[in-house]
Amino acid sequence: MSARRRQRAYPVSPPLPVRPKFTEPDVSPLEDLSAAAEEIRAVDSILQHRQPPPSDISPATRGNILSRTGPVKDAMILSDNENVWAHIDIYGKKPPEREAFDERVKSVLREISSMPDNDIRSLVKAMDKNPFLLGSSPHIKIFLRADSFDPKRSAKRIACYWKQREARFGVSAFSDGVMGIPDFFDYIQLYEKSVKTLFDPEEDDIERALAQEHVLRVHQVKLDAVDRLVYRTPQMQKAEYLDARQRCPEVAASDEHKLQFLSCEDFVEGAAARRMLRYWKEKYDLFGPDMANRNITLDDLEDGGLSLEQGAVRLMPNTDASGRPIIVISCHLSRSRPAICMSQSVWYLIHTAIEEHLCQAKGMVVLGDATYVGRNEFSSGRDPKKSAREVLFYALPCRVKAFHIRFKPSSWWQCAFARFSSVVGNIMFSRFIAHFGTDEEMWREFHSCGISTDLMPTELGGDVTFASWTNWLEERRRMGK
C-alpha cells in the first residue's frame, strides 16, 4: 500500500512541534476568552471533548430496573455506542456482532487497498474529507449488508458509488454536511487503533510513523486543554494541586501524571482535570501534605493496615481475561471499619493495582460481597456516600469499569442494590451487575464476564485463599511498600 493510502487512515495535520510548557498568560479576561474560543475549536477539530450524554434515568425508572438480576444495562435504553461501551466495560470485549462487523470492515479496507489508484480516486477524496468514512460510519454498513457481507463486492461497489457521485455532483459530492460527523466513540476507536499500531510487529515503519504522529497530536492537544482548564479553575478548588506542584513538580507538574488521568477518562479533558484535582484533594485530606511527594505505604495507613489484614478490601493476585485487576470488598467487614481507614485502604490498593498492572486505560473490576449482610445493616449505619466513594469512583486515575454485587437469594436485595447504586451516576449505574442466584448461576455470570475461579476468593467458591492474601501483605510490608 502506498504512503498516500496509509495517510487516509489518520486525520491529516502538519508535523508536530515539541510541546512547550504551559505558562499562565498575561492578558485581559476578554483576550483570554477570545483565545480560549479559538483553542477549543482547535481541540474539537482533532478529538471531540464531549462524551455522548448518558440516557436519562430517573429514580423511579431505577426502581423498575432493580427488579431484575444481571447487568443493569440490559434493562436500560441506551444508544448503540453507549451499549457497546457498557458491554466492553462489563465483559472486557466488544459485543459479538460488533466484533464481527469490525472484522468485515477490515476485510473491505484490505480489498480497497489492493485496487488500482484510478478506481478509487473519488473514494480517496471522500476519505480525506472524512477519515472515519469506512471505519465506523453507517456508510459502510449499507454496502456490506447489500452484498451479503462479501468484502470484495462491497469494496468495488463503494468505489463505484463515489466515482459516480463525483461525476454527477462534482466537488459538491464531498462538501460539508453530506457525510455523517464522527462522534466521540469514533475518535476513541481511532486513538486506540493508533496505539495498537505502535506496538504491532506486523506493521511497517510508515504505518507506525503515522500512528505515532496521531497519538502525539492527541496528547499535545489534550495536555494543553487540561492545563487551560486547571488555570481557569478557582483557586480554592485547586489549592492542594498547586501545593503539590511546589512540593513534587516532577510528579504533579509532569505530562506523564496528567496523561494518566486523560487515559482514565478517555481523553475528555474536563473529566480528566476534575479527577486530577480531586486526586490531590483526597490525598491531602486522607494523608496530609507531607505525604504529597511520595507513595503511600502500609505503615502510613491510620490503622496500620488492619482493615486490609482483616480482608475488608482485597486486591486479587491476577487480572481478568481483559487484563483488569479485581478488587473484592467484603461488605460486612467494611461497614465495621472507620470511614477514613476504608478510604485509605482503597486508595492504597488502587495505587498498587496501577503500579502492578498499568490499568489506567483498561480500568478495574470491583466485587462487593454482601453475602453476610442483613437487611438491618443496610437500613442503618453510615451513609455509603461518606465512605470510600470519592476514592473508588472519582479520584484515582483508574476507573471502575464494572461493579458486581453478590447477595444471598432473598426478597430484600433490590433495596440493598438501590442503596449501592444511589451513590453513582448513570454511566456507572449501567455497569452494575447483580448476582443473587445460586452459586452455579453466579459463576456462569462471572465466567461470561471473563472472571474465572482462580481470580476469586475461596468464600465465593474461588481458589484464592486468605493465607495468600496475608502473605502478600507481609511481603509488601517487608519491602517497605
From TrEMBL:
What region holds the CRAL-TRIO domain?
Answer: 323-461
Ranges where the record places region Disordered: 1-27
> What sections of the protein cross the membrane?
none
Q: What is this protein called?
A: CRAL-TRIO domain-containing protein
Any Pfam family hit: CRAL_TRIO_2
Organism classification: Eukaryota, Sar, Stramenopiles, Ochrophyta, Bacillariophyta
